[in-house]
């Protein structure tokens, strides 16, 4: 199926013989994709660290960003895998838009729900740490599924407006 569809499934070309469905071999991103994910991940994590050093310590943000959000996605991906669902490939416009919308809902809480302002830092911690894991493991697509992909040995992807153009450029340069 085409990779530009929103929620298409693809068991094809990235799997090796004898691998479990949805599992891929080796690094998918190159040096540019790795560097971009490392840089953005470190900037996001650094901004939260700077805020924590300047102001009051808020453990809720760390717990939600480093434990809660990854656990929710891990549970969802585990549920999908247990039902034999093929690889998720939400890399079209709706996948990109949904990912951005979720990030903005979490990040902009100080504006619309001040009592939940810790979700802003939690979003930065979650996305930043996931970007670092995606860079280290060579994952393409968006990093929101990096933890669940790693632990469940899957290759599900959600569109990422920031890194998709870099990954496409690298694939083009490799040919």
Name the features.
7 helices, mainly alpha
Describe the secondary structure blueprint for this structure.
Elements: H1 31-54, H2 59-82, E1 89-90, H3 93-107, H4 109-112, H5 118-137, H6 146-152, E2 157-158, H7 164-174
Parallel strand pairs: 1-2
Helix pairs in contact: 1-5, 2-5, 2-6
Give the biggest sheet.
Answer: 2 strands, parallel
Q: Calculate the terminal CA-CA distance, rounded to whole Å.
A: 21 Å
Q: What is the chains' assembly state?
A: single chain
Percent helix among the residues?
Answer: 55-70%
Structural class: mainly alpha
Order of helix and strand elements from N to C terminus: HHEHHHHEH
The parts where pLDDT drops under 50 for at least 5 residues are 1-22
């Amino acid at each position: 199926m085409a990779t530009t569809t929103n929620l298409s499934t693809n068991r094809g070309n990235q799997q090796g013989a004898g691998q479990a469905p949805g599992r891929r071999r080796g690094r998918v991103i190159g040096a540019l994709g790795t560097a971009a994910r490392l840089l953005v991940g470190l900037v996001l994590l650094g901004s939260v660290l700077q805020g924590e050093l300047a102001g009051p310590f808020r453990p809720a943000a760390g717990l939600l960003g480093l434990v809660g959000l990854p656990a929710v996605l891990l549970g969802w991906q585990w549920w999908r895998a247990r039902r034999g669902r093929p690889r998720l490939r939400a890399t079209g416009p709706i996948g990109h838009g949904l990912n951005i919308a979720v990030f903005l809902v979490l990040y902009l809480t100080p504006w619309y729900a001040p009592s939940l302002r810790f979700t802003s830092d939690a979003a930065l911690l979650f996305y930043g740490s996931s970007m670092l894991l995606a860079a280290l493991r060579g994952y393409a697509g968006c990093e929101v599924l990096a933890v669940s992909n790693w632990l469940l040995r899957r290759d599900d992807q959600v569109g990422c407006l920031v890194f998709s153009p870099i990954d496409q450029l690298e694939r083009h340069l490799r040919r």
